[in-house]
Amino acid sequence: MKFFKFSLLVFLLTVAVSTYNPLVAEEEKWQLVYETDGIDVYRRVMEGSQFLEFKATGNIRGTISDYVSVILDTDEHPAWAPRCLETRNIEKVNDQELIIYAAYAGVWPTADRDYAARMSIVSEPDIPAVRVDIERVELSNTPPVSERVHIPHLKSCWIFEQVGQDITRVELRAHVDPGGWIPAWLVNWGYRKIPYQFLKNLESQVARRLNHTSTLATIAQ
After folding, report:
1. Structural domains of the chain in order of their starting residue, each with its CATH number
2. Which of 39, 77, 166, 173 could staple 81 via S-S, CB 3.0–4.6 A?
3. What confidence score (pLDDT) does residue 213 get?
4. Looking at residue 124, what DSSP letter applies?
5. pLDDT over 60 (residue 87)
6. Residue ranges of the alpha helices (H) in the chain?
7. How far apart are the first and last CA of the chain?
8. In which band, very low, low, confident or very high, does the pLDDT at 218 lie, cut at 50, 70 and 90?
């Protein structure tokens, strides 16, 4: 609950950050690989990496504040993020940054994966958009968990742009090296639909929250 309140505060008190990236960048390099339910999934080659970067975009119901609140409520990530086993906050760096720990179930016969990451919120005044960057960090004081492979590289971001009164354009970008013995071609093949699942599950989680809030309001009357 405290991080739900924190997320709303961040949204209302967003500040200018010079590193804000445009919502559209180098679009000509993306290749469409999957589309359904109004969500498009793209991929592109990353220089110096065997692993592709993926992107999913879609206009889905809810406001920016609804979506930012769900992303920052890390305790609830296992309720909606595909294959998420655990997510928790390790440290609040400042009002725009958190250090988190996350673990995801592997697909048989691969082991579970985990990582620590910096979650940063970026916005600009007068622009109806918020960006949440997530980048892996190394923490010396985090003990290893048995049978979990540490992800050596993860860099992703959520971009939320208000495009209607109750419609938000949601974009997820992710470039991941899962580590271990999995061949790159298999990772690239398997990841092509995961960004879509993240967007659909996120939309469902926002809808559940809104329905729960509406139910509580009705009961209170």
Report:
1. 2-200 (3.30.530.20)
2. 77
3. 55
4. -
5. yes
6. 2-12, 64-72, 184-190, 194-220
7. 23
8. very low
